Amino acid sequence: MGKTELSIRLAKEVGGEIINADSTLVYRFLDVGTAKPTVAERQGVPHHLIDILDPNQPFSVAEFCVLARQVIVQVQSRRHLPILVGGTGLYLKALVEGYEFAETQADMGFRDYLRRLAQAQGPVALHSRLTQVDPGRAARIHPHDVKRVIRALEIHQQLHSPMSQVEAARAPGYEVLFLVLTRPRETLYRRIDQRVLGQIRAGLVEEVALLLSRGYDPQLFPLRSLGYKEIIAYLKGLCSLEEAIRLIQRNTRRLAKRQLTWFKGQKGITWIEVGENTEETLAAITRQVEEKWGPLERGLAHPSSDQLLRKKTGEEEGCLVK
Question: How far apart are CA 236 and CA 230, in angstroms?
């Protein structure tokens, strides 16, 4: 059982609602390649920030934070526990730590110029350009994360200041339990390989072909994401299907490794070992929730006001991040 299934079981156990924190699940028509849970798989548990954009609509971490904060308020007004689920670390960190972002307009011409530069000279060259103007921000972005490098360069170009200076953090507004699920590496890699084969059987190739037939540009962010870019290369005749599958498996393993490395560098995280016994894993997670906020009424998971910690800045709200 993976994080999606576990999060649904947990939500049913403690009366929570799930808020997506994955940068690709926000897009419509990307179902198989993102392993998006179907309506049936959600088992009646409310899911938020899924299927809210078309693939050609831009989406930023700042926009995610605005929407996620709105949803959290709505969920808590129903006295339910918000459960953020996803592996996009920047989304989670920005929301939990309360980042506020510089207000800038998208400069599509400048973005296109930087994308062409990255294609011609490679992503490392683009990252080197960011290092020259904003070394602090560059140190926090992987050299191959072209989208975030471009965004930082765009802000610098518009505000004539490094992004690391115009992006400020305010006091966190939530009392957070931050859980990261982990498995032995050989088990994780085996599951990744099996998942990719399952996506192919479920129609990943057909899904990508349909997106292209609808006129979506292969250079759009969601179509450059893991699984989609490799199948596009196959459909263009640049590689065999077997090679595309191998690349998806390899790149997914690399992504998993980068994610684990990133989370290991964060503070306040509780690691949960996912074993073969689902009930034991679920019980371990539930214990963490109840150790944080005390016993929760089933179906009424939001901690009461006297269970929440308070700071000088006011009462905090409960929020579970996975």
Answer: 10
For residue 109, count CB atoms less than 10 angstroms from its CB and return exposed for 0-12, middle for 13-18, buried for 19 or more: exposed
Sorted by where each starts, the structural domains of the chain and their CATH numbers stand as 3-101+170-321 (3.40.50.300), 108-166 (1.10.20.140)
Q: What is the mean pLDDT of residues 144-151?
A: 88
Over residues 27-71, the pLDDT tens digits come to: 999 999 999 999 999 999 999 999 999 999 988 888 899 899 999
Residue in 33, 29, 28, 41 with CA at minimum distance from that of residue 18: 41
Tokens at 210, concatenated = 């349909």
